[in-house]
């Protein structure tokens, strides 16, 4: 056993050429030229020794586990030699050679630790019973059974790793769905805000355009009215001067009166047009107010429609997830 331990330490140093203090699956392949084992068999040995399943072996894990592996190989080789020489071993002799119950318990426990069975099996009694039965009755089949266990637990470990990878992928997809939902929610909010601002901007611009046009018309009419009033005052002043100073200019006065009457008619017409313009301005202002209220109602309806579409999209995304 001391020789085997020394050999195991030598093999660990061969694997750990960088001096990392641990070895990986790739490091284990360096033993291929040193041992009569294929790369696949070395991979199985590594899986067997990696009881905790962390993908690396410490010196203690490697030396202890590999020593047992070498001892088992030596014992298996001796059994094969004895069988080839025609030696027979009775069940009673096999029992005495393999040791007592404590040694069996230790070897089985060590085997289960190397296989990582505690992570997979809740109850090892059935496996233990079969292992003990083969050890006592069919010892030449024990190594085949242990190799079978190695393959089974390796496949179970791979299945567990695949399950963990699937769970990780599922979590990533859920996170991606949540991020997509949040992104869609932000886009919907920005779209609602943008459309609302566009409606309000268009309505405000049109209302301002109407107001400016009406103000321009009203200002023009007021200027025209002011000009007519000034002109009427000048004519009245001229008429007064003519009546007081020149009686003989009745014809001219008559003309002035007619002109005054025409100016009065123009003044009345202009006043009437101004009144109509003011009424039109009031009607337009009322219409603008009504249009503004309608636009607000339209914006509310559009917002409510977008909210319903948003709710439908969120339900579809939840359903897809």
TrEMBL record:
InterPro entries, per the entry: EF-hand-dom_pair, EF_Hand_1_Ca_BS, EF_hand_dom, FHA_dom
Q: Provide the protein name.
A: EFC4B protein
Q: Name one GO molecular function term.
A: calcium ion binding
The record ties this protein, via SMART domains, to: EFh (SM00054)
Sorted alphabetically, the keyword list is: Calcium, Coiled coil, Metal-binding
Residues annotated as domain FHA: 3-63
Sorted alphabetically, which Pfam families does this protein's record hold?
EF-hand_7
Locate the coiled-coil region(s) and give their ranges.
149-294
Under the heading Gene3D superfamilies, the entry gives: EF-hand (1.10.238.10)
Which residue range or ranges hold the EF-hand domain?
37-72
């Amino acid at each position: 056993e001391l020789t085997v331990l020394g050999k195991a330490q030598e093999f660990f140093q061969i694997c750990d050429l960088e001096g990392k203090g641990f070895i990986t699956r790739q490091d284990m392949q360096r033993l291929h030229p040193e041992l009569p084992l294929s790369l696949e068999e070395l991979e199985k040995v590594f899986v067997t020794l990696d009881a905790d399943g962390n993908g690396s072996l410490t010196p203690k894990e490697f030396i202890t586990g590999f020593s047992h592996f070498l001892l088992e190989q030596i014992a298996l080789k001796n059994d094969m030699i004895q069988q080839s020489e025609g030696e027979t071993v009775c069940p009673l002799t096999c029992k005495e050679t393999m040791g007592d119950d404590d040694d069996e318990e230790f070897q089985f426990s060590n085997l289960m630790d190397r296989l990582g069975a505690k992570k997979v099996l809740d109850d090892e009694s059935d496996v233990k019973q079969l292992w003990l039965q083969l050890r006592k009755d069919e010892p030449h089949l024990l190594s085949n059974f242990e190799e079978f266990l190695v393959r089974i637990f390796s496949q179970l470990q791979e299945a567990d790793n695949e399950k963990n990878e699937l769970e990780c992928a599922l979590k990533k997809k859920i996170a991606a769905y949540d991020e997509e939902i949040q992104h869609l929610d932000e886009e919907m909010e920005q779209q609602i805000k943008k459309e609302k601002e566009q409606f309000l901007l268009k309505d405000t611009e049109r209302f301002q355009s109407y107001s400016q046009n009406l103000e321009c018309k009203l200002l023009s009419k007021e200027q025209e009215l002011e000009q007519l009033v000034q002109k009427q005052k000048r004519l009245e002043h001229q008429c007064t001067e003519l009546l007081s100073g020149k009686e003989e200019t009745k014809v001219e006065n008559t003309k002035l009166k007619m002109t005054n009457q025409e100016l009065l008619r123009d003044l009345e017409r202009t006043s009437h047009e101004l009144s109509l313009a003011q009424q039109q301005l009031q009607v337009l202002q009322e219409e603008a107010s009504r249009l503004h209220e309608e636009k607000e109602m339209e914006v509310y309806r559009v917002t409510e429609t977008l909210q319903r579409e948003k709710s439908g999209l969120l339900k579809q995304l939840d359903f897809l997830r």
